[in-house]
Amino acid sequence: MRFEIILGIARGLTYLHEESSVRIVHRDIKASNILLDIDLTPKISDFGLGKSYDENQSHVSTGIAGTIGYLAPEYAMRGRLTEKADVFAFGVVMLETIAGRPNTDNSLEESKIYLFEWVWGLYEKDQALGIVEPSLMDFDKDEVFRVICVALLCTQGSPHQRPPMSKVVAMLTSDVDVVKVVTKPSYITEWQLRGGGNCSYKGSTNPEFDRQKEITKDCLMNSNRGAKGGGRCSRRQEEPAEDGGESHGAPSEARVAVESKTVFAVVGSISRPGGTVKVARTVSATVSIEREKEMRSCGIRGVIRQHLAWLVLILWSWRVAAAQDQQAPKTDPVEAAALNTILGRWGKKASPEWNISGELCSGFAADKTDWDYYPNINPFIKCDCTFSNNTLCHITRLNLYRNYLTGPIPSFIGKFTSMQYLSLSFNPLSGLLPKELGNLTNLLSLGISSDNFTGSLPEELGNLTKLQQLSASDNVFKGKIPAYLGTMINLEDIAFHGNSFEGPVPESLSNLTKLTRLILRNCKISSDLGAVDFSMFKQLKLLFLGNNSLTGKLPDGISSSLKVMNLVANNFLLDTTSESTLPWGINCLQQDTPCFRGSPEYYSFAVDCGSNASIRGSDDTIYEADPINLGAATYYVTGQTRWGVSSVGNAIDAKNIIYSSQPFQNVVDSELFETARMSSSSLRYYGLGLENGNYTVLLQFAELAFPDSQTWLSLGRRVFDIYIQGALKEKDFDIRKTAGGKSFSVVNKSFMVIVSKNFLEIHLFWAGKGTVDIPTKDNYYGPMISALSVTPNFTPTVRNGIPKRKSKAGAISGILIGAIVLVLAALFGVFTLVKKRRALAQQKEELYNLVGRPDVFSYAELKLATDNFSSQNILGEGGFGPVYKGKLPDERVIAVKQLSQSSHQGTSQFVTEVATISAVQHRNLVILHGCCIDSKTPLLVYEYLENGSLDRAIFGDSNLNLDWVMRFEIILGIARGITYLHEESSVRIVHRDIKASNVLLDTNLIPKISDFGLAKLYNENQTHVSTRIAGTLGYLAPEYAMRGHLSEKADIFAFGVVMLETVAGRPNTDNSLEESKICLLEWAWGLYEMDQALGIVDPSLKEFDKDEAFRVIYVALVCTQGSPHQRPPMSKVVTMLTGDVDVAKVVTKPSYITEWQLRGGGYSSNTTSSYAWSSNPELSRQKEITEVSLQTNISIYGWQEYV
Questions:
Q1: To the nearest 5 percent, what fractions of the chain are helix, strand and coil?
Q2: Domain Protein kinase, which positions (predicted)?
Q3: Domains of the chain, residue spans
Q4: pLDDT digit string, tens, across residues 1106-1138
Q5: How far apart are CA 1057 and CA 1068, in angstroms?
Q6: N- or C-end of the chain: fewer Cβ atoms within 10 A?
Q7: Kindly report the CA angle at 1190 between 1186 and 1192, in degrees rounded to 5?
Q8: pLDDT score recorded for residue 77
Q9: Cα gap 1101→1106, rounded to integer Å
Q10: Does domain 605-792 correspond to CATH entry 2.60.120.430?
Q11: Would you please indicate which residues are annotated as catalytic (active-site) residues?
């Protein structure tokens, strides 16, 4: 059974890697992701981390994801991913299946803790079968030995030495011989975390590396395997028969036979050139196992064993079947791989609420709640898990709007054939729309607005006959509006505005009888509308055709359901019969309708736009409330029918009432500007039933959405036109520009107008200028107004309306209730304030009582020091938040770091960490002056260092021009700082993120180590700590990257990389260089082996001490050795750098370089195959790694500082 399980897994992986229409790397092959059905057929599950990529790609540079213990070395340390990472993990699973134990078990004796090391130790002694689980009394020794051979081959350190999965299957079934030469991986020989011995730095070679052994195993074909055709893997010595007797092949005879059972791996439907097929019947071939008939030689013991085996099989099958019934459905692996690839290509981090690191269709993604229930989750998916008897999930909704994505839509989008809702709007996506969108035939809504797509709409979109909403506005589409839209008869909403379409509106639109919204404004369409039968649009509510070149008569036969029609800026001929096209519902908002003609009732009105309550101005003007939140195309008329408001246009996530708490200094009635009304397109206010005559219209504006701070948000421009009574009064009006470039500053505009038909219209119209979109919620680009008033310039003859009287009893009741509410609110506020102050006092007391006693600053102090956290004082900004420059009253210049709320640190952890950093004082460590805990997010106060970070100084945009003397002193200073942390401080500290960007330079270029957010403390007697991985790719020590084993030697490895970067004046990886120089460590070793080590010295260094440079390079190579025991302690590093002790002239080249040559090399087999890799420019991006759980899945997309 175990062998068949292993073989089934291998065949499933072969399909994913080589036989599927898309190339898929699972990335999380492990025993817990293999499920067994009732027939014990293995099925690979959990495709949440799956990656698909083009078959011509040799590798993908990606964020690390997977489970520690199964990660291939080239992937764990460099983030380079190919299908060989799956092969490595499968090798681990094979060994676990044979041994019946996990790959790491600390409960065992030391030599057996790590399965790899244990099996290699036995293998070298010709005792490989010693790893077999003791409970397996009978087994085929040749078959088991062959599996062990293949497992050791699959877990080789070099990806080129691992066979492809098709070769693995062939070796397991004995169709081909197992490769004869297997090299012991260096990650086993180098990573002995116990033992080791003393390292020599006097010039001798470490003997550990002289024991690189090649182990030969003859794996011969055996023709006696019947239908299996299997070969037996012969060992160096024949295994003795049990009890000293003759071997009768009992293990083979005792196996339970299963006639003609098929191994399935259900991974959903895969699209092939010949059509769609179910993978469930193609993943692996039928395996027939012949039942042996000779039982005599086993005697009664064999019979008992056979019956016991049957009993175990029946009980196991029953339990597996019961468990299988309760298993959650799994995401279609093709869709999972496609989604992970798309997100990876766009560098997008998925929302944590849906489990991108495990099963995609789980949690919020698979529950029954509606899409709108989680408005703050973005990106977001929804799944339908009712397929294949509730065992398979398909992704039906994908929300990626407003995610700042760039580039074209990947063709992988066509894999989501069950998709119903797709939103990609409000991104700077570009290029042509992929024709693969036409594969999404179940789509109901497609959003691609406010991007930069070009070209014409592909014909394949005509396949989307179920589509109900199509939003493609504000792009650069050209050509004619496609006639195939008429075949999409379920369309209810079309938004094509803001494109460069041309030609007529197609006649086929008449077929869209379900249409409720049609927006074609601001295009270049021309001709008349005579070909379109508007009488077919019985449900049409909004028609927007403005700002085109349309001619002819207005459309006839428009349904009474129409609420808003905008036809401005065209060349229509006015026909008196066209009045019949205006719906009755908006009669009161139309100037030419007889709603109030000849019957005036009012002579003034004033509105506080967006306000919930009326306000009396300083001039006794009553500004009425305007609280209604208008929709995309709606209107509102007051109860007294004095005035009305209408809005046209819609913006995602945007409200048309904006609130502000900013103070206004240049106006008396500042409360008028606490709210404003906006519209994404057109905003109108109407005076209804006004007495005819001359009026003064006062419009009051203030920019509330665009701040003055020096951020990208401040670059927004709001430009619109002002019309009154249909006449253009102000063109291209910009509130902030008119206010002298200031936001939250009031601008008043006064106009003299004539009311002649008891009707006044104030129209604020966005004409397509200014900022197209503000990429934050509740903000958009259309017109905005805070207040308005209309007063007569004559003596009125009407009473201005008679307000309804209110009963005194009602007023008294209202006053009493209001008073009670105010008292309760005040009591609650006092209680909350007292509680908060007590909590702050307790936190401060904890800080004062801890060792180090850092200063505790008030928020007011830091606010004053940083000029109210002015954007002009920002020194930098990252995932942790902004850093501000400030100056304290005692003239100390400081750097104030605002920590992110996502650090998830509790008060006690934060206090302890602050105290720890304050307690370590050294010339080469950044000084922490103190912190602030009474702000919304914690603030750390550091000393200000004028010359920035080391990476900027040596390969960035700094103008420091460091000579050799400066560089050497910087290296030596960093070494002394790390020595203090490791050996001289009262607590033992491992920094975990030593890199050039975390070394700051003061005015005298003295280096200071900063950013202790990932630092770890542990007991001096501990040899290592098993922890979660954190740090930056390129600086991670191999034993830490793959096993999570942390000691101070991880810092030493990273310091060795920093030394080489400082000498070479370049980062550790640079894909812009020629192939041999891309990786700094490999390049340095290549030159070192040719006695040309000084070739890495920065060419800008015209003069330097060659002996000193040699010494630094040698020390760097010692510090970056693969084994932590070969790396010297930091005190030794300092003495070697200063020349107080000799540096070893002979250093063993680390195997992670020799094995990870991503070009050249090859897998040795009887069949010539090429597994060469090529570089990928994506790797030039330094990837930082967040802390991840050691024993669980890890998904790493970017790290967050934890100070």
A1: 30, 20, 45
A2: 1-176, 869-1143
A3: 2-47+73-192+221-239+249-280+295-326, 330-574, 605-792, 834-943, 951-1161+1180-1185
A4: 999 999 999 999 999 888 888 999 988 998 998
A5: 7
A6: N
A7: 95
A8: 76
A9: 11
A10: yes
A11: 993
